Protein: Putative adenylate kinase
Amino acid sequence: MRILISGTPGVGKTEISKILSLKFNFLYFSVSKFILENKLYTSYDSKRETYNIDDSVIQKINDQINKMDNVIIETIYPSLVDNADKIIVLRKNPFVLYKDLKDRNWGDLKIAENVEAEILGVIAQEAREWFKNICEIDVTNKSREEVVKNIIDNRCDNVDWLSDDRIQDLLIELDKIISLYENK
Ligand SMILES: Nc1ncnc2c1ncn2[C@@H]1O[C@H](COP(=O)(O)OP(=O)(O)OP(=O)(O)O)[C@@H](O)[C@H]1O
Ligand SMILES: [Mg+2]
Structure:
């Protein structure tokens, strides 16, 4: 059994994955850790503070995953993983995520792009296109134990941050930040 835990940075993938792997005695595999530890990135995007990879890395990631029968896979990008039995996308209220990412002392562009992605459901959309059956869980106001229980019980949420009236103002604020960096 392979369980994929994906979602925007800061939603709790690492913590939830580690709890699940301990609980079920599954292996834990972090795609980003694998890329960094094996220096599989091709370049560093200093504007976004992220690493870039090319397609050849996807094969290496999946070769590694296919060696593991029972594993919890943590990845921001679901489409890096070829197959999994259960696909979870953790979601977090964008206002809460914004505050949490600010606490990480990340750069403004990186924060704004990630909060915007959460608002628009970019990762969930990627997961849906890649795997069809996915389970989204709103982690906002849920304890780690509740999140884990919902994953096990297949109790999924309908998440649509765009239906929140105040979200348009946040999107405008984020767009302003992002456009400041566009010409840099
Ligand atoms: N259910 C929860 N309730 C409250 N805090 C949580 C919960 N789950 C995780 N956290 C906290 O949220 C923060 C982000 O968690 P974590 O590092 O696991 O996120 P992540 O999705 O793995 O981020 P990244 O993509 O950067 O690796 C951590 O400080 C963690 O302790
Ligand atoms: Mg993590």
The mean pLDDT is 96. The chain is about 50% helix and 15% strand. Residues 7, 9-15, 76, 139, 142-144, 147 surround adenosine-5'-triphosphate (ligand 1) (CB under 6 Å).
